[in-house]
Design goal:
heterodimer, A: MetI-like fold, 13 helices, globular, B: MetI-like fold, 72% helix
């Protein structure tokens, strides 16, 4: 544990000044989102008095500009939620099979997943797009969920495999002796010991999918299922210089992850701080 | 893995997304390297990635060293600096597009303090726009690098510092000869991760400049998007994606290898 020390006053002042400068865009985000269009440009730094709460009701329902941030918020929650659940289910089972069947094939597959993690999504999207178009799925959430499950699967497998390899088989052998089949053993005995890495996998995947623009723009722009990044893109370049309206949408789009972050700070910093080690 | 493999094949065709395609060998790549616009995109990608990796690691490391010890606002400051890392990059870009707008708050502040001659259209100026993209990326990812370095610092045993202090090492010497070598694994992780992020810069380009002014801020990723999904040149666009992928994989692996070797040298 690091010791509790008082930093030099000069360092503290420098840090606090830096922090204030760093936080300035965040202050502007909140305050401008509560101003009138004119107020945003004339006095961006002043407090938003009186606050224009109407900005929020307008942007959420989409009156006037046809982009309902409220609907796209629901779409983003759905997309992220379903993708994360699928990634945990398919990722953990695949990794389990890899880890419990050591050998050359499993080693090669594992190496391939590691390489696949760093391959930019751009390379695989065009083929996936043409396949999904033939299935009539482009513009639907199903297509994007499939793409994200493909894209993020290597990371999930990578995270779980490391943990499964370190997990002693004794519990599983005991469960087998008690007559449990492999599925029951996996669900009841193995996965409960994996809560740490499952948490990491969910956070990393959720953040990636929620924040990603590229895939959602390709598959969902102009569709009946706009997600937040798509809606913010349309809003930002449709409402020229209506900064208060744009900022309201931006604030709503950021809020869910920021709230999740406030509640899971330690876990989130640990998930990211470990690099890819979980 | 299968989809990227197919993607790699498309890179050698003239496919337009519909109908037949024919193999045209290296023609796409010849066109990329002959086109001034794509050459700009390639140079931008490399420039942005290099400067980004160096600066984001430097600021992340400085913050980690400053905030690693526990004092009154250290945890609050850590939380603040990491906060942008959980935000949608496109949304973050909109906040900065306002800040950097000609009629925006940055120019406003410059006018108030009498630096009128510095005001400009930051995102519309060919000489500045790319570096504004860099600024936004630094703001967003500095906390991410910081968190990696804090995790690294936490794994260093305090005994080592006590030994260093007894030997009469100055704080700088302790940092240079004890902390930094022991942080080598974190440097590897942060450098590789940030290189991949920097080379793939896309959301910020689309959100801030759209590649403009006049293509001055296009990267490989944004140029790929334009060619493939706006102009419908799937074969040509995928060739750009393959170039980007090669860059990411080669630079990423080379970097990991070099840094690992340095880690081993330090261990020895």
């Amino acid at each position: 544990m690091p010791e509790r020390t008082r930093p030099a006053p000069a360092l503290l002042v420098l840090l606090l000044l830096g922090a204030a400068l760093f936080a300035a865009p965040l202050y502007l985000l909140v305050s401008v989102s509560l101003k009138s269009t004119l107020g945003a440009l004339q006095s961006p730094f002043s407090l938003p008095v009186p606050p224009q709460w109407a900005n929020y009701t307008t942007v959420l329902s989409g009156a006037g500009n046809n982009i309902s941030i409220g609907a796209s918020l629901v779409n983003s929650v759905l997309l992220t939620g379903v993708s994360c659940v699928l990634l945990v289910v398919v990722g953990s089972t695949t990794a389990y099979v890899l880890a419990r069947n050591p050998g050359r094939t499993s080693d090669v597959l594992y190496l391939l997943t590691v390489v696949a993690i760093v391959i930019p999504s751009q390379l695989g999207i065009a083929p996936l797009y043409s396949w999904l178009r033939e299935l009539g799925l482009v513009g639907t959430p199903v297509a994007v969920i499939l793409v994200y499950v493909f894209k993020q699967m290597p990371l999930s497998i990578f995270l779980y495999t490391g943990f499964f390899r370190r997990l002693p088989v004794t519990y599983e052998e005991a469960a087998a002796l008690d007559g449990a089949n492999r599925l029951t053993t996996f669900v009841r005995v193995v996965m409960p010991q994996m809560t740490t890495i499952t948490g990491t996998a969910i956070l990393l995947n959720a953040l990636y999918i929620w924040n990603d623009l590229f895939v959602q723009l390709v598959f969902l722009s102009g569709s009946a299922f706009p997600t937040l990044p798509v809606a913010i893109y349309t809003l930002s370049f449709g409402e020229v210089s209506q900064w208060n309206v744009i900022f309201t949408g931006v604030f709503i789009s950021l809020l869910p992850m920021v709230v999740l972050y406030l509640f899971t700070q330690k876990k989130m910093m640990a998930s990211f701080g470990g690099g890819l080690k979980g | 893995m299968i989809a990227p493999a197919f993607g790699a094949v498309y890179a050698f065709t003239d496919w337009s997304g519909l109908g037949d395609l024919s193999f045209i060998g290296l023609a796409n790549f010849a066109e990329i390297f002959a086109s001034p616009a794509e050459r700009t995109a390639l140079v931008n990608t490399l420039q942005l990635a290099v400067v980004f990796v160096v600066l984001v690691n430097a600021t992340g490391l400085v913050l980690a060293v400053a905030l690693y010890r526990t004092f009154r606002p250290s945890h609050a400051l850590r939380s603040l600096f990491f906060l942008p890392a959980v935000m949608i990059p496109l949304s973050v870009s909109q906040v900065w597009r306002f800040v950097l707008d000609y009629n925006g708050p940055l120019n406003g502040v410059l006018r108030v303090v009498g630096l009128d001659q510095l005001t400009r259209n930051w995102l519309g100026d060919v000489d500045f726009a790319l570096w504004m993209v860099l600024l936004v990326m630094l703001w967003q990812y500095t906390g991410y690098a910081m968190v990696i370095y804090i995790a690294g610092l936490a794994s260093i045993s305090p005994d080592i510092y006590e030994a260093g202090a007894i030997d009469g090492a100055s704080p700088w010497q302790r940092f240079r000869f004890l902390t930094l070598p022991l942080l080598a694994p974190s440097v590897t992780i942060a450098a590789v991760l940030m290189t991949i992020t920097g080379l793939g810069t896309f959301d910020q380009i689309l959100g801030l400049t759209g590649g403009g002014p006049a293509g001055a801020t296009n990267t490989l990723a944004s140029s790929y998007y334009q060619q493939t999904w706006v102009n419908g040149r799937y074969g040509y666009g995928t060739a750009l994606a393959l170039l980007l992928t090669t860059l990411v994989v080669v630079v990423g692996l080379a970097q990991a290898a070099v840094l690992r070797r340095q880690e081993e040298r330090i261990d020895a």
